[in-house]
Design goal:
It is a single chain. Helix content is 50%, strand content 13%. It is of the alpha+beta class. The protein has a domain of 392 residues. It has a five-stranded mixed β-sheet.
């Protein structure tokens, strides 16, 4: 067994695992009414889906870091021997689902000494530099090894050395044993669940985990995106925010041109997550209210006549919008979707634009995470408002308005250019997340006019969004979801969307939406043009941590001491033992 050296001292571990510094998001309990009220067949199916999701977590740990599984084994052995340092380290390892992560203050957390996070995480050779990566690809292309290079640059391969070259191995082949175990659990679940539509999806997913063929994933994704009225939720999330190696190609003009000449798109690697839950019908009905407006929003997107998008701008097709949406009570979130690294996702809009299912006519699906969005400490929330928001505007702050904004954000992912914008390299995800935020804000006035929101709700969304945009610390460039909030804060401040008066935020409510429209148009232009240099300039010009941001950050740090977070999954753990 491999030996490791602990990187965090006992003092640091005791602090980070103390309840004041470690936030806990609680998934469904073993006696949750949502579970008890399920039909027996769905209860039985749920057990197998939970097992499948935790197998997927094991796979993603290997994609995340070459040493994760060995370190996990080391910790478990040390804990058996009574090692308290290992016990506390394991709490953080399970929370962030790996050795390396980032905390809520944007500090890097390395649990094992000497094992730093790599640009290529666990999907590229650990000793592969950017320069060597580019050099090997250039050499292979010039030698006519086009298919081999395509396999290296696909979203679904692990890259290994082969002599002085590289080889891309499909995930399904690389992790065949675990994927087969996953498929077995899903196949059993498909025979137990009470919903025929859901079972058809599970059967397609079962097949896709056994054979290394992206078209099989596409068929499963396409079916998954149609699911609306099912008791259960099961998702394999595939998102590529973590891979920082592939994106470096966009900065090498010579290599980029060579790849384009041979029709090769360098797609960042997918990291895998599992979501298991029970669909909440009441919450889902509330979500569906916006669906009929999506074609109108598509019509009103900037430069809408210059690109194709997933939502067709046809007001007569409101019932044919290829997007479903569900509110889900979570049983378990595993792997990439469940990793608490600086934060944890409130909702997801999938499949992403690079996925084959969209190219064969599939739609998209939004899944909202009820347990993650719930606020557990209203007293702390009030302390935060007292410290940072103008007293007169407290009346417009509503935690539910953050959920309404998130709904707009996820739907905005389906609006705008359909292409995946790989040419924007490491700025692609920052630009896309910024687009989704500005898409949500830019349409608040229009949706109020159309009757989706009341005037009171309009003000609540605007004030809540601006107030929530302030962070505890300056993020790193790799945190796409946080970089975009800094960009927005600077952009909004310069144009008068808010002022800082006596150390508190005062939102100029009527200015916010017009300014959001401006920023949205600029972002869409960058996505259409696909110019890396323009994207880089836009991000760097706006990603500026100002004195006012630091002022608010200092206040937030005093109120909220949280450094790390974790999920607690009581029902899932019970089902795993059955």
């Amino acid at each position: 067994m491999s030996k490791f050296e602990f990187n965090l001292s006992m003092e640091e571990l005791e602090k980070r695992t103390h309840k004041d510094y470690l936030m806990t998001k609680k998934m469904l309990k073993a006696d949750a009414p949502e579970y008890i009220e399920l039909a027996q067949g769905d209860k039985d199916a749920l057990k197998h889906l939970v097992k499948a999701a935790y197998i997927l977590e094991r796979i993603n740990m290997q994609i995340d870091c070459h040493h994760n599984l060995a370190f996990k084994e080391f910790l478990e052995e040390e804990i058996k021997n009574g090692n308290k340092q290992a016990e506390l380290t394991k709490i953080l390892f399970d929370a962030q689902k790996g050795i390396n992560a980032i905390d809520t203050m944007s500090n890097k957390i390395n649990l094992a000494k000497g094992i730093d996070e790599k640009l290529g995480k666990g999907v590229y050779p650990e000793d592969l530099s950017v320069e060597e990566f580019h050099s090997i690809l250039t050499k292979m292309i010039n030698e006519g090894k086009i298919e081999e290079v395509k396999n290296i640059l696909t979203a679904r391969s692990v890259v290994e050395r082969k002599g002085d070259e590289l080889v891309g191995i499909d995930y399904i082949v690389k992790f065949k044993e675990d994927f087969t175990k996953m498929a077995d659990e899903i196949e059993i679940a498909s025979a137990l669940s009470t919903n025929a539509d859901f079972n058809e999806y599970l059967q397609l997913q079962n097949t896709a985990l056994r054979i290394a063929d992206p078209t099989l994933d596409a068929y499963a994704d396409k079916k998954w995106a149609t699911l609306q009225d099912t008791p259960l939720e099961f998702t394999i999330t595939r998102e590529n925010y973590e891979d920082e190696m592939t994106g470096t190609i966009a900065e090498n003009k010579e290599l980029s041109e060579l790849l384009e000449k041979h029709g090769i798109t360098p797609t960042p690697k997918d990291f895998l997550g599992g979501r298991v839950g029970i669909v909440n019908k009441k919450g889902t009905e509330a979500l569906m209210a916006i669906k009929k407006y999506l074609p109108i929003l598509a019509e009103n997107m900037p430069f809408a006549d210059e690109y194709e998008q997933n939502i067709k701008p046809d007001r007569l097709s409101e019932n044919k919008v290829s997007q479903t949406m569900v509110d889900v009570d979570l049983v378990a979130v595993t792997g990439d979707v469940g990793a608490y690294r600086g934060g944890i996702t409130l909702a997801e809009n999938l499949p992403n634009d690079d996925k084959l299912s969209l190219k064969i006519g599939g739609g998209r699906r939004n899944v909202y995470h009820r347990q993650i969005r719930f606020i557990s400490d209203m007293k702390k929330l009030q302390e935060r408002l007292d410290a940072i928001l103008d007293k007169e505007q407290h009346q417009y702050y509503l935690d539910e308005a953050d959920h309404w904004f998130t709904i707009g954000h996820e739907n905005a992912h389906s609006l705008g250019p359909k292409k995946a914008c790989e040419t924007l390299g490491k700025y692609r995800n920052i630009i896309e997340e910024n687009k989704a935020d500005m898409g949500s804000l830019a349409f608040v006035d229009l949706l109020t006019e159309l009757g989706m929101y009341t005037e009171e709700q309009r003000k609540q969304i605007i004030v809540t969004t601006v107030a929530d945009n302030f962070l505890k610390s300056k993020p790193t460039m790799s945190q796409a979801h946080r970089v975009r909030t800094v960009m927005q804060n600077k952009y909004f401040a310069e144009r008068g969307a808010y002022d800082i008066i006596d150390g508190k935020i005062r939102v100029n409510i009527d200015k916010v939406v017009p300014i959001a429209k401006e920023m949205l148009a600029e972002i869409i232009r960058i996505q259409i043009d696909g110019d890396f240099d323009k994207a880089e300039k836009y991000v760097l010009d706006n990603f500026v941590w100002t004195e006012n941001m630091e002022l608010i950050a200092q206040k937030l740090q005093k109120i909220n001491k949280t450094l790390n977070g974790r999920t607690e999954s009581e029902l899932a753990e019970k089902l795993l033992k059955e």
